[in-house]
Amino acid sequence: MNFKLTALLLLFTISTITAQQKKWTLEECVVYAVENNLTIEQYELDLQNAMIDRSDAVGAFLPDANASLSASGNTGLSFDPITNQPVTTTIFTANGGLQSSVLLFDGLRNIHRLNRAKLNALANQYRLDDLKDDIRLSVANAYLQILSNKETLIVFQAQYAITGQDLKRTTELVNAGVVPKGDLLEVEATAANLEQQIVNTENQVLISRINLAQLLQITDYENFHVAEADYEVPPSDILNNSAKEIFAKALTFRNDIKLSNSYIDLAVKDLAIAKGAKYPTLGAFFNYNTRYSDQERFNNITGMLEAESFGNQLWLNDGISYGAQLNIPIFNGFSVRNNVKRAQINVRKAEVQLEQDKLDLETNINQAYVDVKSFSKAYYAAQKTADARRLAYDYSKERYDVGLMNAFDFSQAQSRVEDAEAEVVRTKYDYIFRIKVLEFYFGVPIDLN
């Protein structure tokens, strides 16, 4: 028993450690977010409702069938349902029936409702897919923000290590009387500033991790970590296409455009349904009824009062009715006419919304196209600046080491290097994300590999 308990505890411990050590890749984050996002779950439920509406529309073509059964007892004066004669006694009666009706013509509204239900299910699917696209972009942005903050933290930590060496060396020089104590205070101030930047960046790493975890509906923030990776700017030929070419292709597959088109189709079907109310409706019905009474009656064959059996009465007292009904709309207080006008307005509104969505998409693509170019220039300019700052820092360090530069000027040179290297990290990940956004508009899946 102790061995089993120990084995279970060991297995639980291993599982817990493994879970805590899990490093999430971007692909895993995207898949998990799509599968667990609460808004996506709501949209999936809306899609299920749309499929039920489609089933309702199919059912409207089928005849209905309903059965009824009633039984009652009366004491005193009442009417025998078989003879329809008044009787003063205790009487037990039963009635049963089967009713069915079918709509034969309703101005084609049932057909339009069925087609509308199909279009609505398709629209809900586009709506769901569009939300998934937005979540993929949001997750990619949050993921890259974590990497950017972590890489910036590494830069500051590396600079702090170098400053620690400078602090040690300056302390020795001050103790030896080679440099004034003010130089030591300047280096200490630089070290303290770096400590503050490290603390701030650690907080930014934590906040960015929490933001991504919230997108994934994960509450265990402390044990949520992304995979360690140093992503470089990926090779991309997306700029070989013009913004117009990217926009033209986006129109063929973007779910938000498909959704807007489906809304026009839905509005057109609503207009057809509204116009169908102008036409007559034709329906047919069939009813079967039978009844039973426990009252005795005179039997002409036997010459005696007898109560007919329950089974015999069911077919002796049954009856059938059937027919058709035509309803012709003549005047309805302008409701049909006004509903048609409203439907026509909704068609036009859906068409205008499609044009607006196309315009928004084109604007976003043009902005993304410009962003790729501008962030590319910013990234390469930041690299050049960082290279120049490093050379200047190396030169300043050489002068500082031989006493030709004071600690204040040297700390300024070091600060400029820190800022330049942090800017390289920031612009790099901004550039990577802008490339991925533009590629996404072109139909390229989000992937950092």
UniProtKB/TrEMBL annotation:
GO cellular component: cell outer membrane; efflux pump complex
Main localization of the protein described in the UniProt heading: membrane
GO molecular function: efflux transmembrane transporter activity; porin activity
N-terminal signal peptide: 1-19
A Pfam cross-reference name: OEP
InterPro entries: OMP_efflux, TolC-like
Family, similarity comment: Belongs to the outer membrane factor (OMF) (TC 1.B.17) family.
PANTHER family hit by this protein: OUTER MEMBRANE PROTEIN TOLC
Name of protein: Outer membrane protein
Organism: Pricia antarctica
